[in-house]
């Protein structure tokens, strides 16, 4: 009797597996491939019903003889001794390499000149005794170089050539300068170059890591632009171009996740009130981040304070529409945080707001206006006071999202498309192996 039961069970399971294989084969036989207008594979579209498709993102960085007009990605620069370096970059449809010496790299791509300073990175600042006379706050740039350059010029931080003209004043990027936009590497080089120019003029550029900088360094591609993933693949792979032996990768790993100037705290997500009983030290929180990038043991609690869903990079509890992972904090909870850190305000990004907002009796200042419907404004501290400045510089996010796409049939009988399928499966598997919680 038992043998018959097992026989029936195995027969049913076998039939179900066979049915799934048949359905998968049918789906692949009728699948389509979505490409950017430049020929980069974006998604595999699998039919799941009449006119309905399941979209599978392509993390493999493949394409159909892709040509991306005017696009420069990189350069990926690695130091070789005191002043010698090697560089590689992607321009439009191919990779270029160069070896050299000195403190700068000049590149011509698509008829346009680019210069990159290769001097030593300026050390990150954790704390400062007082706020500078003028401090401009930028947040959630997300690879949008066009917006960044326009905002810097509008605020007279740079001149018409993009060079620092902000004297001994300072700017701070409150996380998520990367991802989503195609120009992630260009934004990072822009901030790197500005930090050197500012330092020479007596000013300062501060760079906080948000959750997307952490995604980037860990190789999590969930929000990376497909064309950036493609060019990164041509340059040796996404994790390779941000490795710790590159100028940009090394510099990023040395940045902070929290900073304090005078009585003002800055963190991308915020400080969870539940954590203040365990730490009230900016230095300790940043040290945990640095230890993590160096592969040192941090301990679960220290790790959670920095990188977990409710850590300083991802916390959303200051907002009423917070997620279940970040229960809404009350004003008294915010006061507890501020008291523990001897602060009057905490400036946060990460959660989009309609306009720069003062929350919880002005204890929280929310500055993430990275949305086409949000107000075009920035936060500026002048003589110790926070002020909202209108800049009338659009983000134009939806314009990029609405970029032209191409759809072509996916032919599993063709070896090229089978290679695409295999690389997609492999890349998706590797993404699933990125360390928790990312």
TrEMBL record:
Task: Specify the protein name.
Answer: Metallophosphoesterase
InterPro entries named among the record's database cross-references: Calcineurin-like_PHP, Metallo-depent_PP-like
Note the superkingdom of the native organism. Bacteria
Q: Where is the Calcineurin-like phosphoesterase domain?
A: 134-352
Q: Which Pfam families match?
A: Metallophos
């Amino acid at each position: 009797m038992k043998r018959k039961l097992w026989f029936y069970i195995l027969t049913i399971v076998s039939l179900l597996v066979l049915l799934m294989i048949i359905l998968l084969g049918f789906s692949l036989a009728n699948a389509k491939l979505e490409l950017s207008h430049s020929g980069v594979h974006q998604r595999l579209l699998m039919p799941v019903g009449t006119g309905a498709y399941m979209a599978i993102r392509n993390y493999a960085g493949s394409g159909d003889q892709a040509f991306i007009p005017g696009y420069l990605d990189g350069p990926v620069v690695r130091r070789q001794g005191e002043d010698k370096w090697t560089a590689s970059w992607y321009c439009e449809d191919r990779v270029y390499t160069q070896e050299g010496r000195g403190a700068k790299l000049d590149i011509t791509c698509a008829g346009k000149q680019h210069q990159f300073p290769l001097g030593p990175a300026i050390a990150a600042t954790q704390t400062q005794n007082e706020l500078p006379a003028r401090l401009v706050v930028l947040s959630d740039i997300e690879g949008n170089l066009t917006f960044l350059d326009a905002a810097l010029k509008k605020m007279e931080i740079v001149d018409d050539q993009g060079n620092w003209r902000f004297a001994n004043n300072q700017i701070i990027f409150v996380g998520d300068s990367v991802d989503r936009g195609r120009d992630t590497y260009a934004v990072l080089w822009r901030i790197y170059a500005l930090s050197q120019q500012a330092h020479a003029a007596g000013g300062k550029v501060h760079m906080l890591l948000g959750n997307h900088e952490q995604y980037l360094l860990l190789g999590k591609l969930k929000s990376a632009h497909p064309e950036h993933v493609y060019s990164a693949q041509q340059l040796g792979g996404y994790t390779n171009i941000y490795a710790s032996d590159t100028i940009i990768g090394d510099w990023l790993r040395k940045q902070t996740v929290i900073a304090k100037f005078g009585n003002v705290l800055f963190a991308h997500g915020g400080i969870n009130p539940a954590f203040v009983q365990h730490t009230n030290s900016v230095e300790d929180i940043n040290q945990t981040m640095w230890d993590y990038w160096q592969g040192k043991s941090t301990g679960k609690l220290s790790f959670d304070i920095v990188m977990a869903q409710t850590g300083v990079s991802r916390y959303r509890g200051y907002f009423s529409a917070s997620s279940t992972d970040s229960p809404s904090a009350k004003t008294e909870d915010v006061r507890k945080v501020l008291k523990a850190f001897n602060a009057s305000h905490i400036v946060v990004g990460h959660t989009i707001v309609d306009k720069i907002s003062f929350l919880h009796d002005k204890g929280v200042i929310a500055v993430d206006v990275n949305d086409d419907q949000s107000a075009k404004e920035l936060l500026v501290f002048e003589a110790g006071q926070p002020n909202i400045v209108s800049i009338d510089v659009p983000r134009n996010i939806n314009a990029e999202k609405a970029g032209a796409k191409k759809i072509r049939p996916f032919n599993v009988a063709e070896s090229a498309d089978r290679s695409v399928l295999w690389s997609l499966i492999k890349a998706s598997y590797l993404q699933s192996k990125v360390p928790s919680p990312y």
